[in-house]
Amino acid sequence: MKRLILVLLLIVPGLARADLEFTVTGGNTRAKPIAIVPFAGNDPAQTDVAGIIEADLNRSGLFQSLPRGDMLERPNEPGQVDFRNWRAVNMESLVIGRMNREPGSDRMSTRFFLLDVYRGEQLIAYDMPPVAPDQLRYVAHQIADLIFERLTGIPGIFNTKIAYVASSGFGPSRTYQLLIADADGFNPRTIASSRETLMSPAWSPDRKKLAYVAYERGRSGIYVHDIATGVVKRVISEKGINGSPAWSPDGTQLAITLSYETNPDIYIIDVASGRKRRITDHYGIDTEPAFAPDGQSIVFTSDRGGQPQLYRTSVGGGDAQRITFQGKQNLRASFAPDGKSLALVNVENSSYRIALLDLASGNLRILSDGNMDESPSFAPNGAVIIYATQKSGAAELATVTTDGRVKQRLRQPGDVREPAWSPLSR
């Protein structure tokens, strides 16, 4: 589409600014003590690799790092470590490393070690591939992921991305932006900007595309943006509602909400060909579909019973079964990566909160504590949920672990909504 005036692509290589500011609450009572020693050969004025690893692990709420001023030594090889020094400051784990410039190049290689302080054992020894200086943040995130998984048994998510919608201004000057940022809020870049509403970003399973809803001259449409090339494809723009895109697990289809035939119903559309088929056909409003990870069923929101609740149906259509019963309303479902639970918005006593539904038992547990929490999205390791919340009249992002113990606020000027967490990099 040569004349897609709503999209403004802004590629900003090398940008390392955090528009999202994290504040962590909870979790400290069970946090594991860990020391991340500044890496030898690293220029922290450019990219402090050890500092990024430290920030990643602290932000998880599961680790508490030792301040650098309290370190009794600064080794960079296992043979230089005196474990007595680290036991004296009650550390359980130790991370050390060294960086070297490749001969005849500005590329940097990184070697790091993870050590068990009390056993005096080496847990990880790893050589990261050489990268250009502007890629060192991603190396640091990869190292943090490796450490996190070795110590917790859970895949790390520090090298993932988040997409979100930000808006600023008032009235006719109000502007909406669709942004992608690193999981720690750094390197934000705008991929779409419009004076009309942008909403419902959804990552493709391979993390290469982003589907979303945009408006052009007041008419909604569903668009797919190729992250690498910046090419934007309008998938569909029927009369009426075109909303809530959700990718199939194989990345070839989108489940969407359309209303051009009758009431809003769920359809599946083939992204390449544009062919669509109707999945639900009901006098109620059916919306907000989500594919199960096995691709065999879809969960969606419907008011067919009088109030919005979640229902499940086969991708082939047919009878839909209600699956939520606790609370006045339940809506906006997001599947856990293993397909065993749903993050959703539970409404009770005029409070909108994020909840976790165990699909096997039907047990529903409230996780957030706001009054206007919405748009939950699972992290790809299934351990954290990102969502939007209202704070002092403005919308911001927040995360909560699935046990409800660790909560974070991700602040940015203006309203920030509609978060979506990317899959792991393939």
From TrEMBL:
Span of the signal peptide: 1-18
Q: What is its main location?
A: periplasm
Give yes or no: UniProt keyword Cell cycle: yes
Q: Which Gene3D superfamilies match?
A: TolB, C-terminal domain, TolB, N-terminal domain
Q: Which UniProt keywords apply?
A: Cell cycle, Cell division, Periplasm, Signal
Chain positions covered by the region annotation Disordered? 405-426
Protein's UniProt name: Tol-Pal system protein TolB
Q: How does it assemble?
A: The Tol-Pal system is composed of five core proteins: the inner membrane proteins TolA, TolQ and TolR, the periplasmic protein TolB and the outer membrane protein Pal. They form a network linking the inner and outer membranes and the peptidoglycan layer.
Per UniProt, residues of the TolB N-terminal domain are 23-123
This chain's source organism reads Hydrocarboniphaga effusa AP103
Q: Quick one: a GO cellular component term? A: periplasmic space
